[in-house]
Please model this.
Amino acid sequence: MGLQDIDSFSDLLITLGTQLVVQSESGFDDYSDNYIRRYVGPLSVVTEDDEQIEIGEIKVWYIDGSRALDNDLDIIDVCDSVSGDALDYAQAIYTDGVIDNEIVADPISNDVLVLHTITKTLLLPKQPVEREYYL
Model:
């Protein structure tokens, strides 16, 4: 069965694994302690015939804000040492090194999982949509 033969699917599967970034220490994290971890994994659908088809990739970043706080580091400075994207995420989420209380009133942790990207590799055929109309 090929992708063109799929009329519908029953499940969307997301599997994450660690993405190993190989580059010099000075290029990734000035703190050399992995406060930001990147995970990458496939996005798959399961057809009604139980066939699993990979349709894309997901990347998430785990920002270890609690450990940075425990080590007297400002997570925004840590993220700034990693990349512009990491800095943008941190500035949107953290205030004075902790999760902004307007986002989460009483957080149990300062760790954040950020959905960085979803990349579509295969296009599924459009699914028929049933609509109900009310007058």
